[in-house]
């Protein structure tokens, strides 16, 4: 009988790396989503083109190809990244591109009369965005952001292929050492699922918080 | 290291071979996803409560876990219980199951969007269940689904590089083996990226066209 406690520790260590990647990747993704999403509705053509290029490029190729490119090709350009940095960078930029479309859609969905009211009140564009448009657009973005965060969590499995010791990688190690396949993979599938559940519940809680006080404002 | 065009032309045939497998996997995976998705959608909508609930859980589970781990599961765990699948088949099943859960949602939304009046009218004109589905419900439900389904087809196409992890010799794996034997990473990796980017930009144009065409049909 194999001693499972050591192996469970290994998988939990991997779970920690997966969590770390998910959190750091999400932070980068949110930043990129707002930068590129607001960039797409900018009044400057150059900013719009730049944002569109970024979004189309990262949505057009898969996370796997981007990750390999960041990890294997960038070193030749003189940028050497650790696997963790490469993973966070690729995941954040990839999911950020999807998030940017969400931000753009939500900002566009705010009615014309709100913008007209801002002009009537003599708010600057920045003030209008910060105090009027974004507070209303945020609740519209959250459900899709939740889905994107789950996509990011699922994307983290790919980093095991650039030898980052995340949960999937550790499961492979356990498989190689014990010869048992069912247990490690079943365990990590459960753990991934639990993390995805936690994200979707957390997002629902957040949604309730930001919509508090908005009832009746919008029909 | 400099970009070398000679090397690019030298590795092109290998990459094209890989691209063929990538496209084959996408097409087969899409076929599996279309069937599996329909099955999930029907089970969730019409099966008795306990079965519908189990199906919902399975769908949620598949959607909440990474495709890569599911592929490992199919490729490494199933042989333990006597099911030994070739790599490509395992990959196609994995892709099909994963995207089938997404397709199921599209089917469900499409079918639920057919107004209640249509069901009632079908009943009033004494159509059988089969006739109702084939002549009334599906012709109205399918066109609005097509853009969404095509969207997932493109998403699936972009996920096929994951199959390289279970030893399918598709585009990414060919590029990796070329890179590993020649120690040149820039050309193969960049070319893979370019291949995917070009193919998905083309499919985006196609998708816009589909959306326009079927959105117009809805207005009629």
Q: TL;DR of this structure?
A:
With 219 residues, chain A is mainly α. In chain A, 79% of the residues lie in helices and 0% in strands. Chains A and B meet through α2, α3, α6, α7 and α8 of A and α2, α3, α7 and α8 of B.
Describe the structure.
The complex is a heterodimer of chains A (219) and B (220). Chain A has helices at 4-40, 45-60, 63-73, 83-109, 112-120, 125-155, 167-178, 182-211. The model of chain A has no long low-confidence stretch (mean pLDDT 88). The longest helix of chain A is centred in the first third of the chain and has 37 residues, at 4-40. Chain A has a single domain (4-211), classed as MetI-like (MetI-like fold). By secondary structure, chain A is mostly helical. Chain B is mainly α and 220 residues long. Chain B has a single domain (5-219), classed as MetI-like fold (Orthogonal Bundle). Chain B is built from 8 helices and no strands. Chain B is flat. The N and C termini of chain B lie far apart (58 Å). At the A-B interface, α2, α3, α6, α7 and α8 of A face α2, α3, α7 and α8 of B.
């Amino acid at each position: 009988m194999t001693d499972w406690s050591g192996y469970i520790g290994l998988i939990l260590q991997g779970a920690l790396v997966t969590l770390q990647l998910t959190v750091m990747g999400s932070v980068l993704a949110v930043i990129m989503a707002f930068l590129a999403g607001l960039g797409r509705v900018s009044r400057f053509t150059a900013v719009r083109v730049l944002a569109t290029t970024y979004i189309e490029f990262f949505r057009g190729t898969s996370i796997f190809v981007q990750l390999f490119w960041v990890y294997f090709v960038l070193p030749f350009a003189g940028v050497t990244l650790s696997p963790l940095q490469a993973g966070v960078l690729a995941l954040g930029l990839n999911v950020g591109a999807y998030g940017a479309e969400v931000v753009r859609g939500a900002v566009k969905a705010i009615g014309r009369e709100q913008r007209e009211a801002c002009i009537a009140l003599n708010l600057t564009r920045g003030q209008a965005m910060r105090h009027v448009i974004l507070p209303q657009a945020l609740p519209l973005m959250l459900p899709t952001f939740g889905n994107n965060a789950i996509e990011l969590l699922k994307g983290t499995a790919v980093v095991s292929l650039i030898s980052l010791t995340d949960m999937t990688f550790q499961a492979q190690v356990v498989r190689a050492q014990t010869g048992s396949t069912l247990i490690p993979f079943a365990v990590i599938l459960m753990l991934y699922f639990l993390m995805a559940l936690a994200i979707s519940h957390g997002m629902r809680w957040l949604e309730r918080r930001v919509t508090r006080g908005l009832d009746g404002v919008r029909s | 290291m400099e970009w070398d065009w000679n090397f690019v032309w030298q590795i092109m045939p290998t990459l094209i071979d890989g691209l063929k497998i990538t496209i084959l996997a996408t097409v087969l995976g899409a076929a599996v996803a279309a069937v599996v998705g329909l099955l999930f959608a029907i089970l969730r909508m019409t099966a008795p409560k306990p079965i519908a609930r189990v199906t919902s859980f399975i769908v949620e589970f598949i959607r909440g876990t990474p495709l890569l781990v599911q592929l490992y599961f199919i490729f490494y765990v199933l042989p333990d219980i006597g099911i030994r699948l070739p790599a490509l088949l395992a990959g196609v099943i994995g892709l099909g199951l994963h995207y089938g859960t997404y397709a199921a949602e599209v089917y469900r939304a499409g079918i639920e969007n057919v107004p209640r009046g249509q069901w009632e009218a079908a009943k009033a004109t004494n159509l059988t269940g089969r006739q109702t589905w084939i002549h009334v419900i599906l012709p109205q439900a399918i066109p609005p689904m097509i853009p969404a389904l095509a969207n997932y087809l493109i998403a699936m196409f972009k996920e096929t590089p994951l199959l390289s992890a279970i030893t399918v010799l598709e585009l990414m794996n060919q590029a990796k083996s070329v890179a590993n034997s020649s120690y040149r990473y820039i050309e193969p990796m960049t070319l893979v990226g370019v291949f995917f980017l070009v193919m998905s930009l083309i499919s985006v144009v196609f998708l816009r066209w589909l959306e326009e065409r079927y959105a117009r049909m809805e207005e009629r």
